Amino acid sequence: MLIQQKISLKPFNTFGIDVVAEHFVQLDNIAGLPELTALGWKKHILGGGSNILLTGPVRGLVIHNQLKGISTIKEDVDYIWLNVQAGEIWHDLVLYAISNGLGGIENLALIPGTVGASPMQNIGAYGVEAKETIETVTCWNWEEKAFMTFSNSQCEFGYRDSIFKRQLKDKTFITSVVYKLSRNPAYHTSYGAINDELERMGVQELSVNAIAKAVINIRTSKLPDPKQIGNAGSFFKNPTIPLRQYTLLQSVYTGMPSYPVNESTVKVPAGWLIEQCGWKGYKHGDMGVHAKQALVLVNYGNAPGSEIWELSGEILHSVKEKFGIELEREVQVW
Ligand code: FAD
Ligand code: EPU
After folding, report:
1. Of 286, 298, 307, 316, which has the maximum CB count within 10 A?
2. How many CB atoms lie within 10 A of CB 69?
3. Residue 123 is assigned to a structural domain of this protein
């Protein structure tokens, strides 16, 4: 393996932040893991770099995941189990599923990044989360120097959350994921504007392909393309608040949207809260808040990650002042 020194990470993160990694390696074979383990450096796993904010030079070793391969490990009349190497591009997996008529991940079309990051924060969109199709996750544990396989329940998935983001943070390298996809998909079209978009497209008969296309159309209409404007998708999570607090707030802010979580809590769109604080379309130097989606912070050119971090702090502060709601960052900060 070629370990390079002082490599710019600008091409490797969708925010387009220009910082240097002290050491950098491309990993395309799991056989290299014991050798990397023996190196004493702090390890940073890099997939597509679409959910990280780089705030300064990265000390230690950045391992760029290039593990590739999709194979069928089991099938029956209803399902097929795919073992997917963690460096596969997520959207390529969605396209693979669609072209084979397999359902379960079509609503997650066009989410940037790698398969290995999908269990990390249980990616989700348009009413579906990765946890619904993940059967097992295999990873290399740096401390145990061994591979470990986690069942779905052992992954402790939650909203943009898993054990890999908490107890196992920085302790494991996810190397492969097994997904259980359906030959007889149950379609999820009720979320957001999917039904409207399917109608606009003139779709008569539902299919995984049609749903993925509708999702792609909606996504491209509101989310900035990182190739044109640097960003990492939603910068914050949508907060869950007690129903009591929501009712009080709604008596003041009558248009405040919400989604029920359970009998006593609701989720409030962070994009709405941020927009109400006047941030939507904000621009200062090269950084800003996207004009079509206030939940997305953007880098128009050469904004330093540390300044985007500071901007996110100002947004957190203003939402807390106005609504008494504490936002949580979704993006991983390095
Ligand atoms: P990276 O950014 O490379 O890494 C993210 C974190 O995971 C890092 O801490 C990294 O160390 C860790 N990590 C990555 N791979 C591994 C591994 N193999 N083992 C252990 N740790 C690992 N997310 C959604 O959930 N829904 C969306 O709809 C969505 N839309 C987006 C739209 C845009 C335009 C963008 C830019 C991002 C969006 N995201 C969305 C966020 C992002 O695409 C996901 O979080 C994605 O899963 C990140 O994958 P990645 O490979 O780029 O991860
Ligand atoms: N809204 C506003 N102003 C804005 C943005 C949103 O008022 O500027 C309000 C509107 O009421 C809108 C609602 O928020 O109806 C929801 O907006 P949207 O459908 O765009 O979704 P979101 O809640 O902002 C979440 C995910 C996205 C995911 C979409 C679709 C989080 C943190 N974000 O965004 O995921 O693609 O739903 O399911 O849960 C990501 O994680 O990076 C991401 C992009």
Report:
1. 298
2. 11
3. yes
